[in-house]
Amino acid sequence: MDLVDFIRARLDEDERIARDADGISRDTLLDLYEDLIQSRPLDGQRRLFGIFIGRFTSGRMLADIQAKRRLVDWHTDQHDLLASARPTVGCRCYDGWPCTTLRLLALPYASHHEYRTEWRP
Ligand SMILES: [Zn+2]
Question: How far is the CA of 119 from the centre of ligand 1 (A)?
Answer without folding.
Answer: 13
